Amino acid sequence: MNKSALITGITGQDGAYLAKLLLEKGYQVHGFVARRGSDMRWRLREAGVEQDVNYIEGDLMDLSSLARAMETSKADEVYNLGAQSFVGTSWQQPVLTAQVSGVGAINVLEAVRIVNPAAHFYQASTSEMFGLIQAEKQDETTPFYPRSPYGVAKLMAHWATVNYRESFGLHASSGILFNHESPLRGVEFVTRKVTHAAASIKLGLQKELRLGNIDAKRDWGFAGDYVEAMWLMMQQPQADDYVVATGITTTVRDMCKIAFGHLGLGYEGHVVIDQKFFRPAEVDVLLGNPAKAKAKLGWAPKTSLEQLITMMVDADMRRLQGQAA
Ligand code: NDP
Ligand code: GDR
């Protein structure tokens, strides 16, 4: 019998890569999707798997829909990727963010506990939980100090995952993932905003790019590599928490240099600093230590930042040229 997986947030960036990975491994893939007006399946279509997923409608804020999804999917593995995941928006919608990204995870844990406590559970935790705490490199022992309503909500979900593991013996694991990007990244996030703008400027469709704090540093990896770490965590005999990162940090400024440079452009003449994109509280530096994931899961990132950003710029050029045609 093929294994069955239920993925919340399947219409997001990671959802598309994870669905593709699991389908390649022979899983039946069930996607838990919120009802939306517009076409939210474009990433699954670009990943070539839109028709291979069984879609189950529901909402992370509705426990009954999650319990039904557990019953319908008969899932052996449950990946909770659904969230209000944009840090900037979390100051505008702190309550919704807490409900979806925080309480939503507890709803999924409850659905697992009630319907099938033998299922393995994955929580999409985040380096945003470290926030203000700067270690030489952040790892599983680094304390947390979130800096945004998003980080606060994710910390609740993270501790709920640990707590359900300890209280009920659930196989509940948490991946503390550092920023990961791809051509399927939402355009509100800084890497895709930059690669999309660089391609638009190159094609004469846009003149300038307005950004906030370009001195912020992030440990950026490729989403396609990171979903493999999620799957590996679910195959372990014991559930645990793992940092997933590259171990290299880069400023937004230097990431811009790579993107514009790939098209033979200088970023300086095009980037305009705009206070609107600064955050009320910033996470200045993120830098992770993936040693535990390497030792226990045999996982290592395969894609450099240069490869990642040039892949994204090339994809944006193709899309924009396609639109123009
Ligand atoms: P995305 O923002 O691309 O995807 C989020 C997904 O959650 C979408 O499918 C969205 O659907 C869904 N969703 C939002 N609200 C609800 C709701 N109320 N009910 C059901 N589904 C909902 O995120 P990523 O793919 O980038 O990230 C996946 C997960 O990993 C998220 O939890 C994120 O917080 C976390 N994470 C991401 C990192 C990264 O760098 N990408 C790093 C660390 C953690 P819709 O679009 O229809 O609203
Ligand atoms: P982040 O990603 O907040 O780290 O959260 P984002 O790409 O939004 O910001 C990264 C850094 O870039 C700075 N920045 C800008 N950011 C955006 N979005 N737009 C701008 O114009 C801009 N200018 C500068 C930000 O201030 C920040 O320092 C992502 C999300 O995927 C989360 O869900 C996830 O948990 C974390 O990564 C790890």
From TrEMBL:
Any single GO BP term: 'de novo' GDP-L-fucose biosynthetic process
NAD(P)-binding domain mapped to chain residues: 6-312
InterPro entries: GDP_Man_deHydtase, NAD(P)-bd_dom, NAD(P)-bd_dom_sf
Top EC class, one word: lyase
EC number: 4.2.1.47
Keywords for this protein: Lyase, NADP
GO molecular function, one term: NADP+ binding
Catalytic reaction equation(s): GDP-alpha-D-mannose = GDP-4-dehydro-alpha-D-rhamnose + H2O
Cofactor: NADP(+)
Domain of life: Bacteria
Record family assignment: Belongs to the NAD(P)-dependent epimerase/dehydratase family. GDP-mannose 4,6-dehydratase subfamily.
Function in brief: Catalyzes the conversion of GDP-D-mannose to GDP-4-dehydro-6-deoxy-D-mannose.
Protein name (Swiss-Prot/TrEMBL): GDP-mannose 4,6-dehydratase
Species assigned in the record: Rhodanobacter lindaniclasticus
